[in-house]
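Deliverable D5.2: sample structural annotation.
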Amino acid sequence: MAEHLVKFDVAPEPVSVPTGTLLVEAARLAGIDISQPCGGQGRCGRCVTLVTEGTVRRRSALRLSAADVEQGYALACQSVIEGGLTVTVPPQEKIERRLTTDRTVGEVFVPANYDPLMAQTIRRFSLTLPPPTLADQTDDWGRLRTALRQQAGLGDVTASLGTLRQLGRALRSGEWEVTAIVDTAVSPSRLIDVLPATISADTPLWGAAIDIGTTTVTVWLVDLITGAVRAQVSDYNGQISRGEDVISRIVYASKDGADELRGLALETINGLIKTACARVKAQPGQIVKATVAGNSAMMHLFLGIPAESIRLSPFITAVNQLPALAARDIDLAVHPEATIDCLPGVASYVGADITAGALSSGVCDAEQETLFIDVGTNGEIVLGTREWLAACACSAGPAFEGAGVLDGMRATAGAIEEAWINGDTFEPTIRVIGGGQPRGLCGSGLISLLAELFLTGAIDKGGKLNMLLDIARIRQGEHGPEYVVAWASQTETGRDITITSVDIDNLLRAKAAIYAGFSVLADQVGVPLDAITEVLIGGSFGKYINVEKAVEIGLLPDMAWDRFKFLGNTSVKGAYLALLDKAARARVADIASRMTYIELSADNTFYEAFMAALFLPHTDLSRFPSVGVAAASKG
């Protein structure tokens, strides 16, 4: 097969590739990372490059005009190399990366009456072994098992080859006084490590609760002895560059990208673990247990399990309930023998993040009909009581988490978290997290801004900006019509902060999907929305959104504000509870087993509800009586 030389303007050396290679693959060989937010499907147009010499065969030119193609622009994920090329790569979009956010870190209360001796499955035992003699030539492993049986009350115990390789050195280094760390959740119990010294009872024993979100990954570092959360860190999921939503990533994985996606997830998680440990002067290798929650696709991609069946009818996962794993088997950068407990999911689009969230939110204990909504890239919804639970899921996109929005960012210092617009001058007043000059817009700020633009008439019910208004803040920008929230002279970045028509469309689709999801679910189980006694909102930004504004745009149902409760990241909190207490872990399994999953794509009901909700606040205004009052008061 013929080889062709491809020169990239941002790479020091050209690369040689065979005929048929995609331009994006050649770029990767040259060390260039070209973002593919649609998973390489050619839908988003954001992997565009300029071919200045040579030609490519274009599988698709979606989002490129005839003039663009004539000038040499090509989608890197859809352009096949058949000859020598010289290529210009535009600057790639960068997602604001923050290892923690001001708005997800907070005090976590240890469950009342937490007793590690009763609740915890990872146990630490101080042992004194009789040293071997010529008269007692019991092998090291047999000697340790006898000590565990006699001094710790454990019956049979197993160990991996890696642990056995370290055993003799640890026993002798500790002069036969050692600390054994054992996983008692399995039968027989499993030896994790032997430390060559006895350790005081109050020395931390480290565990981690991990939530792998489509947009954001969160890690809580926990002392399993006291139950205290000692560090909380979070970051954007590195997989975003290969797909902003679940389907895009599954598609990318199916095109020989599975190993890359798994590596990106591990890179994110391992980086967070390292950061969390540094904060408490611990080492990642000291973490001996981790619980992991995430939606079904994220769990599959994290573990390298093929996920194609999740997006294909009848939408079946490869596995919903995983056995306990050892860290060495999945390359997690903790103790190699650490127990990794992946929490159970329910179905293709209701995963472990929702079973964990159902536990931590309390919907599983509700006496009356309660609605639980996890607002993230996917909108997962649970309706029920302690007697029954029904669930569904819809694709909301990453807009509410700050991704997929031109000036979006996570809820950290510098993010605009709320906005008010003067109905006469259309001038905004903003509130910035941490004070000072703004750097972007977080989810709560986007919801607030969208509501204000609508109520003041700057946008219509369909979200279209009113270009007839004679104000400087509404203008035609590089990405189409936009509203300037903050001028460059007022921002930390020295650039205007705007909300574009594309951003508004993304927000409308997100809010429409969520509203349609819970309204259809309520109809399916025969519970009117006004019969719901409480609405529990999960999600990393959900705790800080303004209820009034969320109702005004049609994201949440129009009901008394005191019926809403905002909980933050319920997935990681559920993982934390399961990490600490074997009874809580058993409850997660019980929740998964009794939750009824309703597939929204089974008929046209969800599509019709989604289309009706694509307007502000809704095509059926009788569902939002308070919004008419709010609009009248603004006028």
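Annotation notes: The longest helix spans residues 246-279. Residues 401-503 form one domain.
The annotation will be released with the project's public dataset once the embargo ends.
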